[in-house]
Specification:
78% of the residues lie in helices and 4% in strands. By secondary structure, the chain is mostly helical. Strands 1-2 form a two-stranded parallel ribbon.
């Protein structure tokens, strides 16, 4: 192989190496940081889910208050009360059924209070008083179980909503990162002092994808 060919090959190889180095040098790394919890809290989806959970929590408190004030109910009425009251997106029929159950329980409890105040109840009234007293006693006994069950339901719903919204926040951060050419976007829990916070921009993506 003559020297001219060798020289040509060397020049070509050097050109390829130099182009490769230039391309590598032009690839700048781009890092960002995002507070996923803040994205979840500030987003429209996060606000809606928080409102829905707060509403559910108030309803749980309303249930416990109602049962505490109206203890005369059968086991079937108690089950219906809890099922219908806690139903999500209740139909008009379910709402009507709930009001009927509540009304029946309130009527029985008012009657029980009336019988308790009677000074000279008849034999029939004494029998009725005994029956209603037994129902109230059962409700009082199971009230701690109901409270515990509702507390667990609250915790489960809170965890479910948090997990769901945070998953959407991660999706929004990944999408924003791809669109803006980020090499990596760190969670602020991992890199709390990093610069280039993109939280507000990720919230915008989250809101567009979850209006």
């Amino acid at each position: 192989m003559n020297s001219k060919i060798i020289s040509t090959l060397v020049v070509a190889i050097l050109a390829v190496v130099l182009i490769g180095l230039a391309a590598f040098q032009n690839q700048t790394t781009k890092f960002g940081v995002v507070d996923l919890s803040a994205v979840a809290d500030k987003s429209k989806l996060g606000e809606r889910e928080k409102l829905a959970f707060d509403t559910f929590r108030r309803e749980v408190n309303n249930i416990l208050t109602f049962i505490n004030n109206n203890k005369v109910m059968t086991a079937q009425q108690r089950d219906q009360l809890l099922t219908l009251w806690l139903a999500e997106n209740s139909t008009d029929q379910q709402k009507q059924q709930l009001e009927q159950v509540k009304s029946a329980i309130q009527t029985a409890s008012s009657r029980y209070a009336e019988l308790v105040r009677k000074t000279n109840p008849t034999p029939d009234e004494l029998t009725e008083l005994s029956e209603k007293s037994a129902l109230a006693g059962v409700t009082q006994d199971v009230l701690p179980q109901i409270q515990n069950s509702l507390a667990q339901e609250l915790q489960a719903r809170a965890q479910e909503k948090q997990t769901s919204v945070l998953a959407k926040a991660r999706e929004a951060a990944a999408k924003y990162g791809r669109q803006q050419g980020f090499t990596v976007i760190f969670d602020s829990n991992v890199a709390p002092y990093a610069a280039n916070d993109v939280t507000d921009e990720v919230v915008k993506v989250m809101d567009r994808d979850n209006p």
